[in-house]
Design a protein that fits this description.
single chain; alpha/beta; FAD/NAD(P)-binding domain
Length: about 450
């Protein structure tokens, strides 16, 4: 099977209808929303999950499929360790093969300075008992003896895993539905109903749901939805291009990335490819508002982001996208059911050439399909997972910065715990919403 992201053309699996009352409404059918809903259902909550398009149709099915602790922000690593255990448990529990494999993740270094950056991250791995090691140039050449490219060394974590996103997240949604979650596809949440400063319900395109708790896990759409309700987060979305090769001889069973191309072995025998360190930002109103917040990130990696002046119509930060609408009006979420950006075809061709140059025994690398996704990102490269202090009943879980697939199960659990008031064993202060407004200095994540 050659993968392709789920689209609006896929038939609806969860038609609803939505009930008129729920304990919790989850907005967004990606991995964080699905796992939040599942965790809440396991806690006896009546949960409705609203997805404007299709489950996992956006970034949750378009990502690289890596499940990694390596290279993460120090505050994320303990959460990622919990997520990894959850992945193992879910793979055993679900009656579907989601492609979960422990095959390792490798960051190849092109220079000694890059090796030094990797070495600086090793204490994080050691503090969290990861099996991460730094490989010398000789060790890297021996381990990857099928590669023609030579590297200065590598960072290698054997315990990291991979899975098939377009298979895994819909399978998790089916498991959540079996656990009692009411999932409704093709149903946009238009507005929150606020009474006396608290959430009292959600206005959807098909009717009203009475509830006192809402989780917003809308990925690239979260900022637009929240701004409509007076909650401003400096979140932007960047386009990332990905491609799938036809089945090829195995040159490496896991995932790896250097300064040119990222690759991952797939369940079908092909490889998923992506351009290393390359993404594109459509400049719109939010980009101008958030420019100051993103300046340190842009300064750190000035060549990693390509600016595009005009977003396609109805994209979240397009110039013509409405910023305000009422509950009885068609919302921006209905005008763009599935965010399906076109891939950068020049980059696709370059990925294939770079992969072939690394492993010349493959010959010309055939690309079977390519796609793009919009990654929701934050100025410090870590997400927001927190209550909205000024709106009791609202929990936000967004801005996963391209790292959400692997860690999504655990952040979904944390979002559920925030709703129920349970003790959270992790320190999540790094992910608080107030860091953008309380005078704190933003500290960039490692972005390895």
């Amino acid at each position: 099977m050659i993968p392709f992201p789920i689209s609006i053309e896929n038939p609806i699996s969860f038609p609803g209808p939505a009930p008129i009352k729920a304990d919790v409404v989850v907005i967004g059918g990606g991995i964080v929303g699905v796992m939040s809903a599942w965790e809440l259902a396991q806690r006896g909550q009546r949960v409705v999950l609203l997805e404007k398009g299709r489950i996992a149709a956006e970034q949750s099915s378009r990502n690289w499929g890596w499940i990694r602790a390596q290279g993460r922000d120090a505050a994320e690593v303990p959460i990622m360790r919990e997520a990894a255990q959850m992945w193992r448990e879910m793979a055993a529990q679900i009656d579907e093969d989601i492609g979960l494999r422990q095959s390792g993740v490798t960051y190849f270094a092109s220079s000694e300075s890059e090796m030094a950056r990797y070495a600086d991250w090793l204490p994080v791995a050691q503090e969290n008992a990861l099996d991460t090691v730094l490989l010398t140039a000789k060790q890297t050449a021996e381990k990857f003896d099928t590669a023609a490219h030579s590297w200065a060394g590598a960072l290698w974590t054997a315990g990291d895993m991979r899975a098939e996103p377009w298979v895994a997240v819909p399978a998790l949604a089916r498991a959540a539905a079996k656990a009692g979650v009411t999932i409704v596809e093709g149903c946009a949440a238009r507005t929150l109903d606020i009474k006396a400063g608290k959430i009292s319900g959600v206005v959807t395109e098909t009717g009203y749901i009475e509830t006192s708790n809402v989780i917003v896990a809308g990925g690239a759409w979260s900022s637009l939805f929240l701004r409509r309700h007076g909650i401003n987060i400096p979140q932007l979305s960047v386009r990332a291009t990905v491609a799938a090769t036809a089945p090829l001889d195995a040159v490496f069973d896991g995932a790896g990335v250097d300064d040119r191309v990222a690759f991952r072995r797939r369940q079908d025998g092909g490889y998923t490819l992506a351009a290393s360190g390359f993404h594109e930002l459509y400049v719109g109103p939010d980009a101008f508002r958030a420019l100051k917040s993103f300046a340190p990130q842009l300064w750190q990696d000035p060549l990693g982001t390509r600016l595009r002046p005009v977003a396609p119509a109805d994209f979240p930060d397009a110039w013509g996208t409405a910023r305000y609408w009422s509950g009885d009006e068609i919302s921006p979420f209905e005008k763009m059911r599935v965010l399906n950006p076109a891939p950068n075809h020049k980059k696709v061709a370059q990925m294939a050439r770079d992969f072939a140059a690394t492993f010349p025994q493959l010959g010309e690398v055939p690309i079977k399909t390519a796609w793009a996704g919009m990654i929701d990102t934050m100025p410090d490269i870590v997400p927001v997972v927190d209550h909205a202090a000024d709106m009791p009943g609202l929990t936000i879980a967004t801005g996963m910065c391209g790292h959400g697939f692997g860690i999504g199960p655990a952040f979904g659990r944390i979002a559920a715990q925030l709703v129920t008031g349970e003790h959270i064993k992790h320190d999540i202060s790094r992910f608080r919403l107030s860091r953008f407004y309380d005078g704190s200095k933003l500290v960039l994540g490692p972005n390895l």
